Amino acid sequence: LRPEETRAASVFASLDAGVASLRATAFANLYADPIRLRAHGASPFLRHENGADYDAVGVEARATVATRLFEGAASATLQRTRIGEGLYAGNSPAYESPLEGYAEAFVRPYRGVRVGPVARYSGPYYPGDPNVYGTRRPGEWEWDAHASVERAVGSAMMRVAVDARNLTDRKTRDFAFSPRSGRSGSLTLSVEI
Fold first, then answer.
1. How much is the pLDDT for 94?
2. Are 128 and 39 contacting, i.e. CB atoms less than 8 angstroms apart?
3. Is the pTM of the predicted complex or chain greater than 0.90?
């Protein structure tokens, strides 16, 4: 979903204790005229439309810890999403999960080097706004691996990262959140001047 307009309100509290921090945010967002896939159509590339407005209310918590040899972070989002108008008012927007989580843990054996696993969780969701009984998809775990090196070269900061996604499962989701099989990987080179 890509909303044309978003109205948002949030309140947060944070606690910083040297090497560790904790941040909690309560939010309420209204998304107007989201672009989404139609429920029916000839091709996933040709069936986009403006959908009904929807809102999301929830809380997000994030914890981080960083030492010279270790870096880790974990976050969880619990939300209630609801379509606010039209035929499916009161239902959940397609592919919006009530619970999502993320955790990563990296070893830093040398300065600028990070190596470790990443875990992502997406809770149960409906693939369509109608929320038809029996179509709800179960929650999914995704296990990834990450390695990166960051170095200063002259006045520029260079970073090379290798990521392997979905290592333990053969089910992934593409840009339109349609299930497809296979694992994926990426190589990223970035230069900051």
1. 86
2. yes
3. no
Burial class (CB in 10 A: 0-12, 13-18, 19+), 108: middle
Q: What are the counts of helices (DSSP H) followed by strands (DSSP E) for the chain? A: 0, 12
pLDDT at 88 over 70: yes
Rounded CA separation 188/146 (Å): 11
- List the structure tokens of 23: 């941040």
Helix (H) or strand (E) holding 88: none
Calpha distance 141→103 (Å, rounded): 11
Query: What are the tokens at 1?
Result: 């979903």
Residue 63 corresponds to which tokens in the numbers above? 């914890």
Confidence of residue 12 (pLDDT cuts 50, 70, 90): very high
* Backbone Cα Rg of the chain: 20
Rounded Cα distance, 91 and 52, in Å: 11
